[in-house]
Structures are given as structure tokens and as C-alpha cells.
Amino acid sequence: MKHTLSPLFLAAALTLAGTACMREEVRRSDTAEASHLQDVLFSASLETPSGAKTALSSDTDAGSAYISWTADDALTLHYAGGSQTASVCDITTDAYSADHLSAVFSAALSSDVTDLYAVYPASATSSLSDGTLSVTIPAAQDGSFKGADFMAAKTTREEAELYFCHLASYLEIKVNSASVASIVIAGENGEALTGTLPVTFDEDDLPVPGTATSTATAITLTATGAGYYYAALLPDVTFSKGLSLRFYDSEGNILNSYCHQNVLTTVRGTIHFFTDESGMDGRSRYLYATVSGAGDKDGSSWAHAMSQTELYEFLNNAKLKQNGVLTVLTDAQKDALDGVTVRLGAGTYTMTDCVNLQNICTTTNKTFSLVGGYPAAGGKTAAPSTNVTAFSGSESHRILDSYVDGTDKKLTLNLSGITFCNGKA
Do 7 and 174 touch, CB atoms closer than 8 A? Predict the structure, then answer.
């Protein structure tokens, strides 16, 4: 069954159903008497045609996706006194359509094992204590849907029926640049994205995720260039100031950033959609600055806003922080500033000296904007009359020099919501 994926950034979501077992098979191995082990087959298949499994293949042109088990899938079975890996031994088409598959998992269990708790994927860090699973959604993820699809189920040896439910919420991130080697995701207000979930089970043996411990406030995805990548996030987290995504090359240089400033609440079993929203040469359409700055101070989001020092270096010397070091932009990166807006948090920015825009200019004509009036620590909406934003010359120098040496250099600068004060001719 196809799912239509919305092209709008975070404006639509694809809800993933759990998975259910459709049949039971138990058989004894030839060596059961000697080893006291039995091969138990757990048959797991889709609950409904809209169910979700472990592989998500996208038809990028049609915006469609099929979700199913794969032949190399494995899960961890926990039980009193131990755990082991159960691997797929059979995949068959189920009754719904050829697009949805059933899988049979096999494990050798001793005869005294009764209650069983399953965690997918087998690579997930998980444990069992007094009927409660602990499942870790890690801060470093491989970017695959399979690696992000954390699920849990409970059954008994006699039933051998696994009904999986998703534990996480998901981001799908479309990357357009072949140079992207990693993606860092963070909440703009320092919210927890990952951690260890305690998972209990209700009277119907359905998993109920609790409050995460050992949390982390950022996720790093491994990427290999253009394509689709997936991140697992804790469910039921509200990002009050939105999410930011930063895209890095193999040397750790930031290629692009995207800040979604709308409030977002993650929903268990739901995919939210992002794109890298690349501008020219991979740069974002916005840069951010506050008087004191924040985070890495590379201007990629409010959480990593440039301070007044980095802002001066950017405007006067065409430098931005890369890997924590102020680095001169290449001509291609300067050309990519066409259409870029620097959003300024309220406060007084004391310029080290007169700002001369000559270094940021190239022979390519471009339009560049500085917009003040945002809240002092950053925010979604500018209100210049309330959030006064000023550039100061400290009564010792001019504030902004529009002179450009050489008629071949071109720049159109738009200013909005900014007051100039204490300048000296």
C-alpha cells in the first residue's frame, strides 16, 4: 500500500501503525532432548495495510513509500535470566497486498522460558528488569530508516505472536548536496531528543513508553551525500522554538543550515518531513545574530547565533565560523549570499570599527539584508518598535561605510528595523 508523502516541510506527517503476528509455529529441534532447547518460530506481519516495518523505500518522483520487513532483519528477545537474537528465517506475502510482507523469526529457547519481550532492531541497546524494558534511542544514528525504527513487543512462548509498536517519532530529511557527510539536529530551546526509554506493557501487552533518562539534546546522523535520511526522536517532546538542522561536509565544515521556528510536538509512530532547503552553494537563506551570541556562534540558527564580534567579522572581513574557527568565505560562498537575510536579536551591537562591506562583495551583483527587531535571544517574529536593535559607533568611529573600491564589485544592501547611534564622522 502506498503512502503519499507531503512535500511541505513539517506540514504533514505519515502515521506508522504497529505490527502484528498472524500465525504461530512451534517445533522441537532434533537435539532438544540433549540441549534442552527448542526452536521457536515467531511469525510477525503487518497489522493493517498501512502498517510499518523496517525498510522504507521511497519513490521520490511520486512521493510514495512502501514499508516492509527485510531478509536480514533481526530482533532481540529478552526473558527472565537472559536474552538472545532472533533472525528472519522466512518472508512471505500477506493477505493485504504484494507490498506488505510477513516475517517469521527463529530462536532457540529453553523449555522453562515463558514471557518474552522483543526489541527491534537487534542492534538497539536494550535490557529487561522486572517486566520493564529499557530501550536506548542513541544520539549518534546511521541515517537509515531501519536503524531508526525502534519497536517493542511482548508475547509468551505458547502464543509466539509478536505485536510490535513503534517507540519513537521520526524525521525524514531530504538532502540535495553530494557533499553532506553528517547532519546535526537540535531543538532551539535545548529540548531532549534522545535517551533511554523505560517501556512497560498494558493489560493488552502493548508497549507504553515512559519518561526518558540519560537524555541528549542533539542527534548526529551519518550521511553519504544526496538522498533521504531518517532520525529517531523521543516521542511527546514539544520543541517550543522549533528545530534546527545543520549539514556538514567530511571535514566538519558547515555547508547549510535550516531552522524551522514553528512549535513542533513529536508523535510516536509518526514521520515528520524536512528538506535541507539549500540555497546557492548550499548556504541557508538566513543567518542569525544576537549581541552575546550562542552555541557555536556560526550563525546557522538562533541556538548558534553569531555574537556582535562574529557579526562584525562577517560584515567587515567576510568571515564565518567553520569548525570553531573564523574562516574567510570563498568567492563562491560570497556569491551564495545573494538573497540571504541576517536576522538580528534586540540589543546594541558595538562595532569594533567602521564596517566596510568591500570584502563581502564580488563581481556578481547580489542583494543582502540585515533585519533587526527580533527578541534578544531570538524568535520567530520581528517587532522593531518593541525589540530595539541598534548599531553603535561608541562615539569613536563611523558605523557603516558604503564605499566599495572598484566599480566591478556590486552589492545591494537592505536595512530594516535597525537604529544607528553614537557614530562619529
Answer: no
Enumerate residues 6+ apart whose C-beta is below 8 A from 102: 22, 43, 44, 45, 46, 69, 91, 92, 93, 94
d(CA 387, CA 415): 15
Residue with cell 537435539: 31
Residue (of 92, 235, 82) closest to 171 by Cα position: 235
Grid coordinates of 46:
503487518
pLDDT one digit per residue (tens) for the chain, 425 residues: 222 222 222 222 333 333 333 322 222 223 223 334 455 556 554 333 233 344 444 333 333 444 567 778 889 999 998 999 988 877 665 544 444 456 788 888 888 888 999 999 999 999 999 999 999 999 999 999 888 889 999 988 888 888 888 899 988 888 888 888 999 999 988 999 999 999 999 998 888 999 999 999 999 999 998 888 999 999 999 998 888 888 888 888 777 777 776 788 888 888 887 765 443 233 457 889 999 999 889 888 888 899 999 999 999 898 988 778 888 888 877 877 777 889 999 999 998 888 888 788 776 777 888 999 999 998 878 899 999 999 998 888 888 876 666 556 677 888 999 999 988 76
Q: What is the pTM of this model?
A: 0.66
Q: What is the DSSP string of 198-233?
A: EEEE-TT--EEE---EEEESEEEEE--SSEEEEEEE
